[in-house]
Specification:
By secondary structure, this protein is of the alpha/beta class. The protein is built from eight helices and 13 strands. It starts with 20 loop residues before the first strand and ends with a strand.
Length: about 350
């Protein structure tokens, strides 16, 4: 089997100074790409030298504990959504408080936000919940987050890709997914920095558009790296350049494990990436479709999940990321499979005739 060595991020334009804390909400209906985009944003900004916090989706935590929303009575639904909102706010506050003490620029990515529970109850119920908690829509919607990105569900415009296998706590069909997507969109209308990312492009371009809108809001110049025509080229090099050939750079240790699959059109990969013993973990799945196109999904996982899945073919890298020019980024990796070899990743833009 041919193994693909593919890095998961575009890298290293300069970040804003002085350090900032930026809070982003990813919202939308089921199967919109929130988990994958959260992972892509994390890798991108970590490569910039930012500290990134990923706030998990509270509803998934609760539903994963055995709660079945369709089994709840009307009064229980209201109580559940009230408790969900209280839990969500407290979980977020943990990460918000941590971000205040960061000595570098910090990105906090929330998988859904405080207005999302309103998509699952009627307006009167929502108003009662807010009154009980002493909150209001303006406070939760406009004053809590710097940017809201609505990732439109695949059930709207990309039905062939609609799937719930990436989140076992979800059970929505196409029609309900469309309804919930519209409700989520309505819940966040009014936020001063609200971006909608639809399915008018393929999924890879959808992810790049998300990266682009965040960088644009922050004033980060990414050149043409997030253009759909942007390609990553990889070259074998005889010898690693000396460190003085680079400007400022950061080293990352990367371990990639390729999981066995009974389907030759599916490739699954684990990725452990870190510095100084502190690591993040990710699982990605690449599926080749009948028309030859490839769709890739990614999600962050815990260290425990990683250890449970940790098997089979292993590829180790020591990555060195640095800014080569304003719109041209070099990323070098020492890769160990069965022997040592050098690979250079080079981001550039293809110009079609």
């Amino acid at each position: 089997m041919m193994m693909s060595l593919q890095s998961t991020a575009f890298q290293r334009p300069s970040s804003p100074s002085p350090p900032v804390v930026y809070k982003v909400v990813l919202t939308g209906g089921p199967c919109g790409g929130k988990s994958t985009v959260q992972a892509r944003l994390s890798t991108w900004f970590e490569n910039l030298g930012w500290k990134v916090y990923r706030v998990p989706e509270t509803a998934t935590l609760l539903l994963g504990g055995g709660v079945r929303f369709n089994e709840l009575g009307e009064d229980t639904v209201e109580e559940f959504q009230e408790n969900l909102l209280k839990t969500l706010l407290q979980i977020e506050q943990v990460f918000f408080d941590l971000s205040k003490d960061s000595t570098t620029s910090c990105l906090v990515i929330c998988d859904r936000g405080a207005m999302d529970p309103s998509a699952f109850v009627n307006p009167n119920t929502w108003e009662r919940i807010l009154k009980k908690l002493g909150k209001n829509n303006v406070q939760l919607r406009d004053g809590r987050y710097d940017q809201v990105i609505h990732l439109v569900t695949a059930a709207v415009g990309a039905e062939a890709f609609y799937s719930l296998e990436n989140n076992t706590a979800r059970t929505e069909g196409l029609e309900l997914a469309r309804e919930l997507d519209a409700n989520a969109a309505h819940a966040w209308v009014g936020h001063p920095y609200y971006d909608v990312i639809d399915n008018s492009t393929d999924f890879e371009a959808k992810c790049l558009r998300c990266l682009s809108v965040v960088c644009t809001r922050l004033g980060i110049d990414v050149g043409d790296q997030l253009m759909p025509q942007s390609k990553r080229r990889k070259y074998l090099i005889r010898k690693m350049p000396s460190d003085d050939k680079f400007g400022k750079f950061q080293d990352f240790d990367v371990v990639q494990n390729y999981l066995t699959s009974g389907d030759e059109d599916v490739q699954e990969r684990l990725r452990k990436r870190g510095q100084q013993g502190h690591c993040t973990f990710m699982v990605s799945r690449r599926t080749r479709l009948s028309d030859g196109s490839v769709i890739e999904t990614r999600r962050q996982i815990s260290e425990r999940e990683y250890q449970c899945l940790f098997r089979t073919f292993c590829c180790r890298q020591t990555r060195q990321d640095s800014l080569h020019s304003n719109s041209d980024v070099a990323s070098f990796a020492i890769v160990s499979i069965s022997k040592w070899t050098c690979i250079k990743n080079h981001a550039t833009k293809d110009v079609k005739d």
